[in-house]
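chain below, 411 aa
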Amino acid sequence: MEKTKPRIAIISPSCPPLGGGGVSSAHFNLALTLKEKGYPVILATFGDQSSHGNDGDFIYRFGPPRFLKKLLNSLSARFFRWKEPGTLSYQTRDIFSSQWGAWRCRRILKAFKPDILIFPDHGCPGLSIGKMGQEKTIFICHHNPARFTSPLLFQMPLSSQDIKFAVRLEKRSLKKIDCAICPSSYMANFFKESHDYQGPLHVVPNLLNSKLLENIVAVSVAEKLGMPTDSPVIYIPSGGSSVKGGRYLFEIIRRIAHANSACLFYISGGQNVVTWHELQISGLDRRVFWPGHADYATNLAYIASCTLCVSPTLAESFGMALLEANYLGLPAIAFDVGGNIEIIQNERNGYLIPLLDIDLLIEKTLFLLHSQNAALLRRMSMNSLDSARALVSNASVESYERIFEKLIQGN
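prediction:
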C-alpha cells in the first residue's frame, strides 16, 4: 500500500507570473515539481500586494499594503542613517516589510494544516509564521545578508549595523526550524559560519520544473529588434542590478558589439536609466532588447532564442538565471564567484572567469561567437542542457523526499 504523502506548504516572497527573482522562481519550481509528484501542495507569498488574493488552485498571494510598506521602509532607512550616516541599508527594511504578508499567510496555513512547512531566509517570514502545530519546518538559505559586505556591490558603503541586525533576526527565526537546506556547498559553508548554525543541514540544488521548461516556445529577440533572425543574441541576466555587475554592462556591450557587428543583446530585469542613456547616446540601443520586468514564462521564451549567456554578477548564491540558461541550451560565461562553480563546468558548458576580469569575459564571449568555433558552440550548448538536466534531475527531488521522510519520522 502506497504511503500517504505529507502535505507541503511553501512560503515565497512572490511567484510567477506576478513576481520573479531567484528565490521566487526557485520556490515556484519546487512547488510545481512536488505537485506533479502527487504531493498536496500550496504556495503562499508574503511580498505581493494583498489585493491579488488567491491564484489558481494552489497559490495564495499576500503582502503589505503599499502605504504600510512605504512607511516601514522610511522608518528603517531613517534609523540606519542615524546609526551609520552615509551608508546604504536595505536588509532589515526587507525583513520588516515582509512581516505583514507573512502574518497573513497564517490563515491559509492553519486551514491547510501542512505536515511540512518550507520558508526562505529572504524576508525572514519565519519570524511571523513560526510553528502553528506539529508540522516540521525547513529553512532554505538562498540570500544570507552576511554575504553582502563587499564595496563592489553598490555605489556607496553598506551599513554593517543593518547587516548585523538582519542576521540577528534570522538567527531568531532559526530557533523554530527543524532543518536547513542550502542550494550550494558555497552557501552551506557560509551559512554555518555566519549564523553559527549547528542543526541538520542539507545541500540540495534548486529545482527547475522540466515540464515547464520543455513547454517554452522561443520568442525571437532578433525579430523584436527588427534584425535578421540568424543574428547571435547574448543574454545578460538582471543587467540593471549593481550586484549583477550592472556598472560594467555598457562597456561589455560596447566592446562586443564593436568586435561583432551582427551581435544582439537581451537584458532581463528592470532597466537602469544611466545605462540605457549610455546605450542611446552610442546608438547601441537599436541592438539591445531590454523590455523591463517580464513574467517568468515570457522571460524564458526570450532566453530560449538566445545564443549564449554572459553574466558579470559580483555575488551569487546559486545562479538560477545561469541554470535556466543552461537548461535552454545556452553556455554561460560568468565570474568565478559564490555558487557559480557548482553550475558552470569550465570549458564544458561555459567559462568561469576570475572576478573583475572584464577583458577575459569579453574575449571568451567573442571566441565562442566566432564562426570558426561554431562546432564548439554547438557542443557546449548540448553540454549545457545535459549538465542542467543532471543537476535538477530526479535525484534532487528525491533528496527533498528523503528529508521529508526523515522529518516526519522524527529522525
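The chain has a mean pLDDT of 92. Residues 75 and 315 are 28 Å apart (CA to CA).
thats it, cya
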